[in-house]
Amino acid sequence: MIFKTIDFHLYTNYSNVDYSYAVKLKTKHICNYIERNCLKPLKFQTKDNQGIIISFRHGYNDATDSTFEPKISPTNRVSCTLAFDKEKYDRLKTDNDYREFCLESLLQAFETAKGKYEIPTTEILESFEELRQNNFVNEWLHKKKAVKTKKILVELHCAMTIDQFQLTLKVSQNNKEIYKKVILETDPDEFAFQYKLGDILVDDEAIIITTKTKKELYKLSFSELV
């Protein structure tokens, strides 16, 4: 198997879905960066898992020592259960506070799984540090297309922060940017934006940005570029 993913989940004994989702969202810009820039090119081979899940557990009275033993989940990922201190978490204020919480949780999970499962811990931590050195800027080029008849270059740029995901349309001519607009904003969660990242189509009148299901996401008439 190839180790591909990192994910965080908060499990509670009360149905506060919004709170659990908010905890997860604070980690997504980091997980996404590590998955794309570290794990995808690394192709780290394992015997029995395809990633790691940091499973925070809060509010259960039936927890035992065995509850916190790392195990392989039904999705073939190493599930590391950690106790969640809600009062401590609620005192976090800054973006860097949440990022350090994410790092501390990763280190704790790696320690519980050490010697039991194959995880590229060194490479993951190096990737986290690389992102930190880049001020946690997580940006990438989704797609580009040269339109020779118009002598323009069309690009779709993605940016993922701790708070949101943005898709920006850029059009350049003779190496000079002539159009730039954010055409999509969502939560920083692949489930919220991945299916909307489709293709760049061009006809005689316009540039059309589509979703993965071929629906129109945005249309830019060439008359707007004049």
List the helices and strands and how they pair.
Blueprint: E1 2-3, E2 5-12, H1 17-42, E3 44-45, E4 51-58, E5 71-72, E6 78-83, H2 86-90, H3 95-113, H4 121-133, E7 138-147, E8 152-160, E9 165-173, E10 176-186, H5 190-193, E11 200-202, E12 206-210, E13 216-221
Parallel strand pairs: 2-4, 4-6
Antiparallel strand pairs: 1-3, 5-6, 7-8, 8-9, 9-10, 11-12, 12-13
Polypeptide structure, described:
- The protein is of the alpha+beta class.
- The protein is 30% helix and 36% strand.
- It has helices spanning 17-42, 86-90, 95-113, 121-133, 190-193; strands at residues 2-3, 5-12, 44-45, 51-58, 71-72, 78-83, 138-147, 152-160, 165-173, 176-186, 200-202, 206-210, 216-221.
- A hairpin with a 5-residue loop joins strand 12 (206-210) and strand 13 (216-221).
- It is elongated, with a radius of gyration of 21 Å.
- 23% of the residues are buried.
Task: Tell me briefly what this model is.
With 226 residues, this protein is α+β, with helices and mostly antiparallel strands.
What are the key terms here?
alpha+beta, elongated, 4-stranded antiparallel sheet, 4-stranded mixed sheet, 13 strands, about 230 residues, about 35% strand, 2 domains
